Amino acid sequence: MPSNFQTFAALHTSNELFVLPNVWDAKSARVCQDKKFPAIATSSYAVASALGYEDGEDMPFSDYLFVIRRILAATYLPLSVDLEMGYGSSDEAIYANIRQLIELGVAGINLEDSIINSGKRTLKEARQFAKTIRYIRERLTSEGLDLFINVRCDTFILDVEDKLAETLRRLPLYESTGADGLFLPCIADEGDIRAVTRHTKLPLNVMVIPGLPAYDKLHEWGVKRVSMGAALFIKAYDNLF
Fold this sequence. Notes:
By secondary structure, the chain is of the alpha/beta class. It has helices spanning 4-10, 26-34, 44-50, 61-74, 91-104, 126-142, 163-175, 190-199, 215-220, 231-238, and strands at residues 18-20, 22-23, 40-42, 79-82, 108-112, 114-117, 120-123, 148-152, 181-183, 204-207, 223-227.
């Protein structure tokens, strides 16, 4: 029987588009399981907001771990964790957090290539971020551990200047680290998506946003995974009354 990691990784090479719902507690995880989704992921925004925190690592990692434990206890589905910037100030500290997630049974993570300073989010220097991913992969390999590393590149969500060109510049660096996937939240244009899928061997993950093209079109353009992000959480609370 395949492990949760193997099941999760295989979803990125399927002939079908992998649609991944993002949950924030045990109940939302169970609902997604009942709806026959093949896997789930956390949304850091949704978990933080549900606990009364702002997104962007305002939430203590210990609180996040509690929620992750409850989700894992409530469902048998493979779980990927939105780890934001890693909840650590060094590669070693980030890896220590990842190690805790693996011990709990997490199948994958997202790690983003931006940083927040004084309330402002900016891109990290690409080589510095690639070094962090490479360090994590080497530690995992040396310890014989499996984890799907989805690199979140924030060029589009931050709408940086020449965002497609900057994305394509970063791709070879990220591919060389041992990353398993590429997440580009807020990419939606056909030309941009086709350009990225032509220039990377990593499975491309996009996010549900207003105006996102239909799933069949995304699949045709080479997208492998669509994450719902905070959409389910926002929909649930928008319809509370």
